[in-house]
Amino acid sequence: MTAFFQLHRDLPREGPGEAADVAWAADRAGVADTARIVDVACGPGGDIAALLEAAPRGHVTALDLTAHFVDAARARWLDDPRVTLLRADMASIRNEYDFIWCAGAIYFIGITEALTAWRKALRPGGIVAFSEACWFTDTPSDRAVAHWRQYPAMTDADGIAARISAAGFETVASRRLSGAAWETYFGPIDARIAALRPGADVALAAVLDEAEEEAACWRAHSDEYGYLLSVVRPASRSGAGKG
C-alpha cells in the first residue's frame, strides 16, 4: 500500500471524471441550488467543487473509507461551511439527501446492492448518479479482457440497466464519460509516473508499471470500454426515458 500511495498521494482525483459530468447529471436530476448532496467514496474530493457549483446554496457531505483521501479533501475544503468530510463506509449512508453522487466506486458494493442500501438515504424525489465500468462491444480485445480480469462482474449498458431495475430503480438518463474525463485522471498520473520512475524500488516499479498499462490500454481500446454515467431514481409507474 505504501507504493500505491507514493503514486496516488495528492492527485486531484482517483478515477475518470470531469466537472461536465457532474453538471450534466445534476441537470438531468433537477438538482436544486439548495440541495443536500452526498459524494459517496469521494476520494480526495475531486468532484466537490462541481457539486457545489450545482447547488451553491446547498451542502455537500463527502465520505470515503480511506483516511488519506479524507485528509486530502479536508485540507482543500476545511474552511467551507458548505462541505462536511467524513471517514465512513459507503454501504451505510446516514441522513437523507436530495442527490447521491458516486463516481467510479459503486463496484465495491455492486449496483443492485448499493441502490437498495441507499434508497433509505434519499429524500422524496431524490436521485442517484453513478459511473460504472462498461463494455461497449461484445468482442473486446484480449488486452482489454486481461485488464478487467479482476472485475468479472463488468457488464454492458443493458447489464447495468438490468441491475438498476433489480434494485427497483429506473434510469432517467445515461451517457458515456468522455475522453477528456479519462485524460483528466491519466494526465496527472502520467506526470507522477515520470517523476517517480528514476530510482523506483521493485515494489514501486510494479505499481508504476500497472498504472502505465492502465492508461495505455484505455488509450488503445477506448472504443471497447469506458464508464457509463447513469442518473437513476426509485421506479414509478410513469416510467422514465433514457437521454
From TrEMBL:
Transcription among keywords: no
Gene3D superfamilies, alphabetized: Vaccinia Virus protein VP39 (3.40.50.150)
GO MF annotations, alphabetized: methyltransferase activity
One biological process term in Gene Ontology: methylation
Every Methyltransferase domain range: 37-126
UniProt entry tagged with the keyword Methyltransferase: yes
Protein name listed in UniProt: Methyltransferase type 12
Organism: Sulfitobacter alexandrii
